[in-house]
Amino acid sequence: MTKLQQVSRVTNKLTTLGVVIASGALMFIVIAYCYEVVARYFFDQPTLWASDLVAFLLFFSIFLMIPEVTRSGGHVSVTLLEDHLAERANDRLSSVLALISAATCFAVAWISGVENVRQYVYEITTISVYPLPKWILSSAVTYGFGLSGVQFLLTYFYKRTARDSAIGGFS
Fold it and tell me: Which of 6, 26, 35, 50 is least enclosed by beta carbons within 10 angstroms?
């Protein structure tokens, strides 16, 4: 197994773990909202925690799913230019865009990681009924963008490997 395959395997397992956790978060969002509706309208006892929990879980689910969207190519794309390029030029454009996207994701992950540390050191919490350390939430941003950056790099390297194999060498 090559290093690229090992990195791909670990990255895909982490991405799948993020999908499972995000899916569980969405399930708990539905449960919390249903509980809130029943408690509020049938028993006249609204909860203090449901709204915050739903917001936090939605935040987690979004950033835990970003690597999967990247892996599956599910991002919105405007293909006007790609539709008019020759196959080889389109491959090169896709490779350049994958590298730019990876660099952007890594930059965002770095900025978020620095902010995670600052939030931890200064013990910054959310403004809510039950305050939560912000670094717990913002670490999801670091995870999502960092792993998406790796997914974009894998896209670049696998496209390059496929292209090099097709033409019999490096282009």
Answer: 6
State the Cα–Cα distance between residues 66 and 144, nearest whole angstrom.
Answer: 6
Residue 169: CB atoms within 10 A of its CB come to 6
Amino acid identity, position 64: L
Task: Choose between 149 and 78: higher pLDDT.
Answer: 149
Contact 143, 15 (CB under 8 A): no
Q: How far apart are CA 60 and CA 142, in angstroms?
A: 11
Distance of alpha carbon 59 from alpha carbon 70, whole angstroms: 18
Q: How far apart are CA 120 and CA 113, in angstroms?
A: 11
Q: Residue 144: which of 109, 107, 117, 110 has the closest Cα?
A: 109
Spatial contact of 140 and 63, defined as CB atoms under 8 Å apart: yes
CA atoms within 13 A on the CB side of 15: 22
Cβ atoms of residues 118 and 67 within 8 Å? no
Residue whose structure tokens are 């690229």: 4
Question: What is the three-class DSSP state of 1?
Answer: coil
pLDDT per residue over 20-39, tens digit each? 999 999 999 999 999 999 99
